[in-house]
Amino acid sequence: MKSLWRTLVLIVILTQMHAVWADVVVAPRANEAVEGSISNFYPFAIDIDDPADPLFNANPLTSQRYQQAYDSAVFEGFSGPLAISRISFRPNLESGGAFSATLEDIRISLSTTPLAMGELTTTFADNLGGDEQVFVDGPLTLSSSFTGPAGGPKDFDIHINLSTPFLYDPSQGNLLMDVRNYAGVEGDPPLAMVFDAEWTDSDIYRLYTTYPTLDGVDEAEATFLPGAMGLVTQFTFTPMNEAPTVPAPGAILLGTFGASLVGWLRRRTSL
What we know:
By secondary structure, the protein is an alpha+beta fold. It has one domain (23-243). The chain has four helices and twelve strands. The chain has helices at 2-15, 124-127, 215-218, 249-270, and strands at 23-27, 38-40, 64-70, 82-89, 99-113, 133-144, 158-168, 174-181, 195-199, 204-208, 229-231, 233-239. The strands form three sheets. Strands 6-5-8-3-10 form a five-stranded antiparallel β-sheet. It has a four-stranded antiparallel β-sheet with strand order 1-12-4-7, with no helix packed on it. The two termini are 14 Å apart.
């Protein structure tokens, strides 16, 4: 009987286990399953040229600072805080391709900007929020297998994982990604490293420098005014104030197995 009770207790514990399902959103929302209207190298694939063709120099910048803002409305339906654990991009259908490249020295952060989308300024510091969290500071390897429908859009398989999730509350403002790319791409840069982007009148804005020196990264002012364009981005996150309610598949299977085991034990003890 002791074994029977131990089994029952184990079943109760296992069947109470729940899976924490991560949610994803895409910005702009309209581009979740629609190819963007343009392609873009910025801000990751700078210093790209073709060694075989000296006349071809797709992106001569050796450093760049770039900010992209995401309207909090992208996260409509979720209440904060949201623990963002991954940022993903996808290659452009026409210009992109499979690649693997290491960025030598890059700094990436997220924060809640105090400004509305249309109020972003060319002064980078003014756009940053007080909750800024740096999650990449040094080398970063990015890659894509260029998988997905032949007619696009391709899969979001260019991932940047956050070692510590960023807690974002959409009710407190818009989300801002700040990128300081100090060194471009290591080795011979792959020309396939082209990202899907979108011109839009909502959801995303960007501003950036176009200086070809390190001074461009640390400059306080952007070269271009904020514009309604940017990389199509997928965020993976977990709502922190919503208790998961769906039992994990493993717990269901174990619970079924346990119930069968209890029935078998009862039959044995009755013999």
